[in-house]
Amino acid sequence: MNGQTSERAVVLASGGLDSTVTAAIARRDGYALYLLTIAYQQRHAVEIERSRQVATALEADQHLVINVDLGTIGGSALTGHLSVPKLRTESERNRDVPVTYVPGRNLIFLSLAAAYAEVLGASIIYFGANVIDYSGYPDCRPEFIQAVEGALQTGTKAGMQGKGIEIRAPLLRMSKAEIIRLGLTLNVPFQLTHSCYDPVGAMACGQCDSCQIRKQGFAEAGVVDPIQYAVC
Predict the structure, then answer these.
(1) Is this model's pTM higher than 0.90 or not?
(2) The total number of structural domains that make up the chain
(3) Is 220 within the bounds of a domain?
(4) Is residue 118 part of a domain?
(5) Is residue 196 part of a domain?
(6) What is the pLDDT of residues 89-126, one digit of tens each?
C-alpha cells in the first residue's frame, strides 16, 4: 500500500503497457493507487488477469474490475467477429479510424472512473491515452479529454461543489520508445503487461497493430521486450 499520501487517484488500468506506465507515474506523483479495470467482452481478455498482476506488483490500494458488455453492441474487431488487421504499415494504421476502435469505450471508461472517483473522494483520474501511436482513435485525442472534463464539471456532484475531477493523460504526446524508457526509470513490470489485440492463448500474436507498435517501441528504446510473441 502506498503510504506517501492519503490523496487518492483513480487509474484506468487495462493490463497493457501504457496504462501500467501511467499507474507507475501516479505512484511516483505520490498518490494512493485505486486501479479500475473494465472487462468489456474484449477478445484479448487475458489483459484482465494481467491487470490483477500489475495491481499486485504496483501495490495498489485497491483494484476494482467492472464488467460492461460492449460485445452485445459490437461494431469493433475487439468485441465482435470482425478480423483484427495484421502486418499493416504505419501509414496504413494512421489512414482511418481502425476497425479495432470500440464505439464509446473510452467515454464509458472515463464515466465509470469518474463515478469511482466521486465515491472515493478522489479528484484525479489517470488515463493512458496516446495520440502519437494511436492517432486513429478519436477518443484518445486531447479535445476528447477536455470535453469529458467539461462534462464532469457540469454533471457531477464534485463539479457542482467546485471540486471538479481532473483527467491526467501523461503519455499523450510521447512516442512508444519514450514511454518505455520512462517506464524503465519507474521500475515498471513490463513482463506482466499485455498489448496484443488478437492473442494466441495468452501469447501475443506479434502481427496486430498493437504488437507491431510495441515491438517497434522496444527496438527504438534499445531494450529487449520481456514478453513472448507467437510470431516474432
Answers:
(1) yes
(2) 1
(3) no
(4) yes
(5) no
(6) 988 888 889 999 999 999 999 999 999 999 999 999 99
